[in-house]
Design goal:
411 residues, mainly alpha, Serine Threonine Protein Phosphatase 5, Tetratricopeptide repeat, Rhomboid-like fold, 20 helices, disordered C terminus
Length: 411
């Protein structure tokens, strides 16, 4: 167990160093991991990636062949290794086919998107290359894999005949691309999936990628929409109640969770109650908390995971209120969902504490402190929906653990 933990630490250190463009540090980390477990395909693939950045192309070939020996069935590491071999032979189209298959098998690896960006740029597809590069940056939390790939020769500009000088190795930090060699590169042993012919992405798939890229430019989009919906509904109820404190009858008519009506089949109230609030203090405190905590979770987990955590926790809190609350209970508010989001924040810190270093340990301490403070506040103030809060918290932790993005290549 200790050896596995140590290997995982070296893998994470190597991946992070490579993402920051520190290829030498990455190579050292992977070399240490190789001494502990010489038959680990991820370790040898890391050695290949680091030595590609250092320009040690013979080592890249040796490491990639070793990966293929360790993955005879053609897994994601084997596909990526074959893509690196094809890259060295300037077979960019074939390399792109293999890296797309590797991404399909394991879509959360930032380096694969950085490699895909390089291959697309080598073929003149700059727009799609920028999309892949942005994806790599998002998965690596802002890193850009600088100087990790060979230098590409500049493409001639249409309408100009001027010769653009190519920097020599002494003038550039990057090693030049090796000349195409007539070597026999064995194909990755094929599985039933690998035997299927690869087809280029359709127009719809390209549009989906562009849409995701556009959404990634607005990191607080989902949080802002949720806050806007809650505030808008509250303002409608203010007009209907003619007061900043919302009338109970208005709340029930708008969809608050009234357990007697839920028992009669109006189950939808468990959902609609998440967007209703009793007063300006209630909606203001909830939305302020959601804005700060939700923005972090949206960045850590991604928009769709975050939305699943928020809605799942809110529904779980409402269900807990129905089964554990009094029959005449009228419940409303986003507190259960927000407690679930807060639980997801703790899960992220706990699962990734090693990769986060000293910051992770301090963040966990702060999270435990605020969690305890909120629980004490819940039990000391009458009228607060404790079952809703605790139900949302537990559900948020469970859902977040299932959806957690880990900083390592694999955990």
């Amino acid at each position: 167990m200790e050896a596995q933990t140590e290997i995982q630490t070296y893998l994470e250190s190597g991946k992070e160093a490579l993402a920051r463009g520190q290829a030498r540090d990455a190579a050292i980390a992977y070399a240490h991991a190789a001494q502990i477990e010489p038959d680990n395909s991820m370790v040898h693939l890391g050695l290949a990636e680091a030595n590609l950045a250092l320009g040690n192309y013979d080592i890249v070939r040796i490491a990639c062949k070793r990966v293929q020996e360790l993955q005879p069935a053609g897994g994601s590491e084997g596909m990526c290794a074959q893509a690196l071999l094809d890259l060295l032979n300037r077979r960019y189209d074939r390399a792109l086919e293999f890296i797309d298959k590797a991404i399909a098998m394991e879509p959360g690896v930032a380096y694969m998107y950085a490699l895909r960006s390089f291959l697309l740029r080598a073929q003149g597809q700059d727009y799609d290359a920028n999309l892949a590069r942005a994806r790599a940056a998002r998965l690596s939390y802002g890193a850009h894999f600088e100087n990790c790939f060979p230098q590409l020769e500049p493409r001639p500009t249409p309408g100009y005949s001027a010769v653009v000088p190519v920097p020599t190795p002494e003038q550039s930090n990057e090693r030049p691309m090796p000349a195409a060699e007539k070597v026999s590169v064995p194909d990755v042993p094929k599985t039933r999936d690998a035997e299927q012919s690869w087809t280029p992405p359709s127009q719809l798939q390209r549009q989906m990628v562009r849409t995701r890229f556009a959404l990634s430019r607005y990191p607080n989009l989902v949080t802002s929409i949720i806050v806007g919906i809650n505030v808008f509904i509250y303002l409608i109820m203010v007009v209907m109640s003619r007061s900043l404190d919302i009338n109970v009858g208005v709340l029930v008519n708008m969809g608050a969770q009234y357990n007697l009506l839920v028992a009669q089949g109006q189950i939808w109230r468990i959902f609609t109650a998440m967007f209703l609030h009793f007063s300006i203090f209630h909606v203001g405190l909830n939305m302020l908390s959601l804005f700060f905590i939700g923005s972090a979770i949206e960045a850590f987990y991604g928009k769709w995971r975050y939305l699943a955590i928020y809605l799942g926790a809110g529904l779980a809190g409402g269900i807990a209120t129905y089964f554990l609350g009094a029959p005449d209970t009228v419940a409303a508010g986003a507190s259960g969902a927000i407690f679930g989001v807060f639980g997801a924040l703790g899960v992220f810190y706990v699962v990734n504490w090693r990769a986060l270093g000293s910051y992770g340990r301090g963040a966990i301490g702060n999270w435990v402190f605020w969690l305890g403070l909120n629980i004490v506040f819940d039990f000391s103030v009458p009228g607060i929906g404790i079952t809703d809060h605790l139900g949302g918290l537990v559900a948020g932790v469970l859902i977040a653990f299932l959806l957690i993005p880990r900083l390592g290549r694999r955990v």
